[in-house]
Amino acid sequence: MPTDRAQPSAGRGGPPPEAGPGAAYAGRTVLVTGGAGCIGSNLVRALADGGAARILVLDDLSSASRWNLPDHPAVRFVRGSVLDDEALRAVFAERPEYVYHLAALFANQNSVDHPEQDLRVNGLGTLKVLQFAHLAGVRRVVYASSGCSVYGSRAPLPLVEDFVSLDLDTPYQITKLLGELYCNFFFRYYRLPVVRARFFNVYGPGEIPGRYRNVIPNFLYWAIRKEPLPITGTGEETRDFTYVGDVVQGLLAAGVAEAAAGEALNLASGREVTVAHLAGLINELTGNPAGVRYVERRPWDTITRRCASVEKARRLLGYRPATDFETGVRRTWEWFTANWDRIAQDARF
Ligand SMILES: NC(=O)c1ccc[n+]([C@@H]2O[C@H](COP(=O)([O-])OP(=O)(O)OC[C@H]3O[C@@H](n4cnc5c(N)ncnc54)[C@H](O)[C@@H]3O)[C@@H](O)[C@H]2O)c1
């Protein structure tokens, strides 16, 4: 049966303008699945800084390291899977009011290699989190969707939210869309206030390089080791690289903005950067003399240009990606140099 629920109230009136959006969570209990990952760990830090009373992190550490999480008294780490009912019961027993569902099998190549695990984690795992959130009567769920997935490769640029594609290239793209479809169901049928946040090539401190990870941490890893950076394709392909700090600002707003419930929102930079420019920047920053090497594009990699419209997120959330690309890459590099020993040890190639 559909159930009614109170509208979220933490956003009403809102925090004082000088306080960051994290202040809306002061004194609140928040669950972040996948909270030890790149985006999750930065979100957890922002929630802790904003004064959240309790931040529950449910993560199985399948693609993250415990040390990535801030050591903060409000943070409670539970090592477990979103597929495990007992682990879900344990975190929901603490009555989170807000749920950020970021746990996922990441990403395209991983899903091609492990399609069943992709379906389990990204499909069934998302369904379970939504069921628990509904039964717990949470104020808001924010689901981590992927703009690089749901728009396919033929959508006109800039990408706007009301277009999604059924011509997808990998199991990951399919299950990220599936997650959105479940979100729609829970919003429509149970009135669960869910926001679908669509990310685009997020980068920044907190992402440990690895075989299945994004290009920026991997380029930094190889550049530090003085290896040539492998460019798949011509190098003229573009991506909408988005600094994780900007994504976190958007996520915090998405958790409390009343108008966002039931909506899909691009959290992107709105700018295109070529992979060749990225490689040149990283080689210059790190002093890597090895240059680049060109390798064949992977068969599923059919997207040559990516650029999102952030107009809807600006309108509904006041979202403004503020970090220019060079600054974001430099901060990521600084995080690498400060944590190099642990990163080198935990990199999964
Ligand atoms: N980073 C990007 O460019 C990007 C782009 C689009 C969408 N997304 C989505 O955003 C979310 C976060 O991405 P990220 O870059 O921080 O990735 P990430 O891999 O760093 O974080 C995901 C976290 O989920 C955890 N996890 C995996 N399976 C789990 C399970 N069964 N139970 C509990 N935890 C599990 C991992 O250990 C990891 O800490 C993901 O849902 C991802 O699909 C990311």
Report what the structure shows.
There is one protein chain. It is globular, with a radius of gyration of 19 Å. The chain folds into 2 domains: 24-203 and 242-267, NAD(P)-binding Rossmann-like Domain (Rossmann fold, 3-Layer(aba) Sandwich), CATH 3.40.50.720; 215-240 and 271-305 and 323-346, UDP-galactose 4-epimerase, domain 1 (Alpha-Beta Complex), CATH 3.90.25.10. The strands form 4 sheets. The chain has a 7-stranded parallel β-sheet with strand order 3-2-1-4-5-6-11, sandwiched between helices. It has a two-stranded parallel ribbon with strand order 7-10. Strands 8-13 form a two-stranded parallel ribbon. It contains 12 helices and 13 strands. It starts with 28 loop residues before the first strand and ends with a helix. The protein is α/β, with parallel strands linked by helices and 349 residues long. It has helices at residues 38-49, 85-92, 108-113, 115-136, 147-150, 171-190, 215-224, 244-256, 275-286, 311-317, 325-338, 340-346, and strands spanning 29-33, 54-59, 75-79, 98-101, 140-146, 194-199, 202-203, 229-232, 238-239, 242-243, 264-267, 273-274, 292-295. Helix content is 39%, strand content 15%. The structure holds nicotinamide-adenine-dinucleotide (NAD). Nicotinamide-adenine-dinucleotide binds next to helix 1, strand 2, helix 4 and strand 5.
